[in-house]
Amino acid sequence: MNNQNKKILLMFPGQGSQYIGMGNDFLSKNNEFMKYFNISSLLIEHNLLDILNNINNEGSLLEQTQYSQISIFTLSCAINDYLFKKNTLNENSNYDFVVIGHSLGDYSAIYSSGMLDYENTARLVAYRGKIMAEAGSHIDGMMAAVIGTEKDIILDVLKKYEKKVFIANLNDYLQTVISGYAKDMTDAINDLKNSGVRKIVPLKVNIASHCPLMKEVSEKLGNYLNDNFDSFTAPKFNYFSATQVSYIDNYVLKEVLVQQLVKPVRWLDSIEYMLKNNFEIFIEIGPGKVLSGLVKRTASKSGMEDKKIFSTDSQSDIENVKNFLVGEGIINES
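Given the sequence above, the corresponding structure tokens read:
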């Protein structure tokens, strides 16, 4: 990475950002990107667009891990390629790109980085979603966001739930996600409320991700990676892991993806690193505005309100990003 160049962070959202109708405006105006949904639909043997459009009441499937993960991934990759492939990168631009994902978003980031092609990354996401859904059916896990409370207070309450409830995501200074067995999570949530925590939001997942309860799933994913992927291509965009809080190259990617399921997402630490290293532009690529919102709060807390922060949740948002990138000479409009 050229230290003299300005820096852009492309951020890819994770499970929980899905919603019925997401991507409809984008696809209606960019029909060629239907092919991404066709590929993903074949891999999971179910029509993703029927789910996203609630055809025959199939929208309820979007809350199931095996469908939500591939849906978010597919839309994120399509928007990424609209911005950076349909509209080509300007090779003379003085900007460097870095990609990062939040949990599932790591896979969209890996695709964006160029380390793996679309079909193979989608196959990997489909398998990951499948084994996580299977684990959810017998582990009886749960996740919840604790909002407005510092991490140390949460950790103090969780001491009595050792090996049962864990810190899963450190999202910003006052948003932490906990993960664990559903029964113990219910008790821990009550204890947190009794200790003064005002807001706890259960997440739209039926799993206990980013904690040791995912050990068996992590091992299955490792075996699948070893059996099906010999190597990954060197990245064209640098990839930063939010679980490792470091840049990761193609040689250690397998190990990082395996560990990702049992390690917490350290989003706050990752964004603080980017802010300290003079990243100028932050673009969330995919459904929702969670990640861009987290960056805004972290930047504000750090006294860096001058950062340019974008989302791509709607077609107008996407066009706003495109027009900005064209105007800055970062991409050439198709």
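The radius of gyration is 19 Å. Try to locate this feature in the token string yourself.
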